[in-house]
Amino acid sequence: MPSKTSSRPDPAARPKPIATRAARATARPAQGQLAWDPVGLMAGVDEAGRGPLAGPVVAAAVILDDSRRIRGLADSKVLTPLQRERLYDQIRDKALCCSVAQASVEEIDTLNIYHATMLAMKRAVEGLRLKPAKVLVDGNALPRIDVLAEAVVGGDAKIKSISAASILAKVHRDRLLHDLHAEFPQYGFASHKGYSTPEHLEALRVHGACRHHRRFFSPVAATLTLAAGGAATVTVL
């Protein structure tokens, strides 16, 4: 008995759909997700005081506690002094751990400001009570540390832990300059924090440099040159 022929078309004989670019893209296997960053604590690092003519450069490292939110964290430069002081206390209270370190004026004069800043950052990271799995550093350079690290340009405005570090470093350094003002009120450290304002430059011209000034920064070096020629005096107390 002859076999019946099915009236259904043979699937193999059907015309294949045109493989458009969109269809090919959809058909590609999804890229596997690779977690390159280690699992663990992340620390933010920032500094304050690279540009001033006087005082140490200060760095801070902060590991935030995700369960204890701190509202208002931002780049310290866009905050008012009162906002920074308020956030400073909250960071110290709510962070998992934090560390503030510095490089002295003598180290700045010996190493230069770049290497002294890297040294202060290294000290801040090493001063953390908990060791982070990764460190995020504001800027485009990294200190030599034994932890995975990444430089983030503009990180103080993008990453909360770096914002917190920038606030700690700034407030700590401002307080140090207030102490220097009590010792050398003629320079006005409490107002300009060591930066090269007209007030500070005039004080340098009149009083010469003191032991808290960075001797290889141009305005200070010029004052010392004048002092050597007898046109100004140098405070050494």
Quick synopsis:
It contains 9 helices and 5 strands, in the order αββαβααββααααα. The protein has 237 residues and is of the alpha/beta class.
Describe, in plain words, how this protein is organized in 3D.
The protein has about 240 residues and is an alpha/beta fold. It has 2 domains: about 40-180, Ribonuclease H-like superfamily/Ribonuclease H (Nucleotidyltransferase, domain 5), CATH 3.30.420.10; about 185-230. Helix content is about 40%, strand content about 15%. The protein is built from 9 helices and 5 strands, in the order αββαβααββααααα. It has helices at about 20-25, 80-95, 105-110, 115-125, 155-160, 160-185, 190, 200-205, 220-230, and strands spanning about 40-50, 55-65, 95-105, 135-140, 150. It has a 5-stranded mixed sheet with strand order 3-2-1-4-5, sandwiched between helices. Strand 1 and strand 2 (about 55-65) form a beta hairpin. Helix 2 (about 80-95) crosses helix 6 (about 160-185) and helix 3 crosses helix 4 (about 115-125). The radius of gyration is 29 Å and the shape is globular. The model is unreliable at about 1-5, about 20-35 and about 230-235 (pLDDT under 50).
